[in-house]
Each structure stands twice: as C-alpha cells, then as structure tokens.
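ok so I'm stuck.
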Amino acid sequence: MAVSEEDARQAEERMAALRANGFAVSARYDRRTARIVVNLNTGVQIAFPTRLAEGLAGASADNLADIEVSPAGLGLHWPKLDADVYVPALLQGVLGSRRWMAAGLGAAGGKTRSQAKAAAARENGRKGGRPRKAGGG
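replied:
not stuck anymore, here's the structure
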C-alpha cells in the first residue's frame, strides 16, 4: 500500500496535535519508590507505580530500568519486557488495555468493604445465600 503525500501530511498533523499536550523527553525507573518517572517537554514530571501498568507489574528492577523513549516522545518501550506505554494515554491515567484495566478495577471492586455491601451480603444470607451451581454431567 502506497502512502500519498497527503496521507503523510495528515499523519504529521495528528502527531503534532498529540505532542502539543506534552511528550516524553526522558524516562527512568526509580528503584527506591518502584515507580517509573517520566519527564515531559513541558517541565512536568509524572511518576507511576510499576504495579499499575500492564506488562510492568512484577518485573525485575533490571528489566524495568531499560526504558526507551520513542523519537516522537509519544511512547515508552521496555525491550526486555516487550511492554509499551502510550504517553498521551498515560497523561489520561490509562496504564493498559481496556480489558486489563477492567479486570483490575473488577478485582479492586470485589475487595471493597462498605456498609452497603455488608448489608447486601447479610440480606442474601437470610435468603439462603448464593445459589449453588448446577452440577454438570
């Protein structure tokens, strides 16, 4: 598939628009806090715990320390982990795919303790509890 000059121009405009909100100029792993620290062209510095990013959770410090910033500054890449973080998404608080983030939110929500959740569990218990699964076979 050939790329026309118009296609290239439009792609460059989209990249410029993304970069206008800030782009990475450097990134490092802070072993002391177990966080990735990203410096943006705007002077802003962002840090996030590795456990919150898809592909980085549970990785060794040596693997986390090897970070590449894309030439446009819109991506971070960990070659030893084959993991990537998209900087515009990072600025919006997105640290993984929708599916991966939904799984994390679901697990966190299941662990939440509240008066309402406890009351619902008690009410369910009064009704005989959770229905048993139908036996297969």
